[in-house]
Design goal:
Elements: E1 4-12, H1 17-30, E2 37-44, E3 51-58, H2 61-67, H3 71-80, E4 84-93
Length: about 100
Amino acid sequence: MNKFCTYGKFVAHEGKRDQLVEILLQAAESLESLDECHMYAVNISEDEPNAVWVVEFWQDEAAHTASLSLKSTKSLIQQGRPLIAAMEGNRLSVIGGKGI
């Protein structure tokens, strides 16, 4: 199985989380037509008011990498970057499980 997953945490500048969430939701919408993207979930944390988590599940790492070169993706990254104070993430190879 070559499935690929990322878990990313974005910490928005104070008061900018909701604006960042809107941009990330636009990113999710822009990926709707890509069959290689199986999931792009935007999540907020009740314990960290400035944190936004994004979980991405892709056919493979190459599909994820290719998505970063899309015009819509580049534009949304450019819009979101100034709102982000810090980022951390994990790139994972999916082994298996329910829904996979």
